[in-house]
Amino acid sequence: MRFELEQSNRGVADEDLLADMRRSARDLGADSLTVAQYEAVGRYSPSTVQKKMGSWTIALKRAGLQLNRQVGITDEELFENIKALWLDLGRQPRYGEVKRPGSRYSAKRYETRFGSWSEALCQFVEWVNSDDPPQSSPPGGTDVAASDTTPSGLPGPPKRRTRREPSDRQRFRILVRDGFRCRSCGASPLVQPGVELHVDHVLPWSKGGETTDDNLETKCRKCNLGKGAAFHA
Fold first, then answer.
1. Which one of 65, 76, 185, 216 is least enclosed by Cβ atoms within 10 Å?
2. How many CA atoms lie within 13 A of 54 on its CB side?
3. Do the beta carbons of residue 198 and residue 221 sit within 8 Å?
4. Angle separating helix axes 75-89 and 117-129, nearest 10 degrees
């Protein structure tokens, strides 16, 4: 067996270290890099990087990489990013599109968290639907507990089962369901830049309509403002 001295990396140039960090991040398909990741794929020791740069955070900044927040990133933050990307594209984002500048996080980060991009999408759909409010009662149905009585004993206004404004997740569901198009005129920002889409009630809130998926629809700004309190017959 022949013994050889291990070469010291203390004399390596800063730019060589930074370039290798960037190369390691590219190989991982990530926009950031942990100490453990670099130890597995980097040419140099993480301790050498930290000693030369002062800290791993400083090294990330100098390499032009994102500060690593993997531990602090919640599932909801990752899902909100998918929602924003989906809205921007007007369709389900593909694996290759989950990158900067359109996406805050890389596809690799979703794979690390959920096992695969497909599984991340499945869990995203569950999250989007998790605030689904109760749907409207069947036609002709009654809800005994849906109204109060006035001091005179007469029925009062019905109790609301939902809040007036749709949540961000509910609004997203309706836009996707309606194909990002106005249900009245078909206008869509996907083919007509500048078109502004609203999500509004079919049966107006002022007339007792609830904020449920089956009572919401996509309207362009022009059609929505023009309808007033009218609703479909």
1. 76
2. 5
3. yes
4. 90
Q: How far apart are CA 45 and CA 125, in angstroms?
A: 41
* Contact present, 120 and 113 (Cβ < 8 Å): yes
Residue numbers of the domain that contains 50: 14-63
Residue 102: both structure tokens together: 């359109």
Give me the number of domains the chain comprises.
3
123 within a domain of the structure (yes/no): yes
Q: Is residue 6 in a domain? A: no
Q: Whose structure tokens read 């991040």?
A: 25
Whole-model pTM?
0.58
Q: 232 in a domain, yes or no? A: no
Contact assessment for residue 182 and residue 219, using Cβ atoms and an 8 Å cutoff: yes
Of 142, 208, 200, the residue nearest 171 (C-alpha): 200
Q: What is the pLDDT of residues 85-131, one digit of tens each?
A: 999 999 999 999 999 889 999 998 888 888 889 989 999 999 999 87
Report CA 96 to chain centroid distance, whole Å: 16
Q: At what angle do helices 117-129 and 107-114 cross, to 10 degrees?
A: 80
Tokens 């694996």 sit on residue: 95
3 state SS of 108: helix
Taking CA atoms, 95 is separated from 86, 88, 172, in Å, by 12, 15, 20
3-state helix, strand, coil in the chain (%, to 5): 45, 5, 50
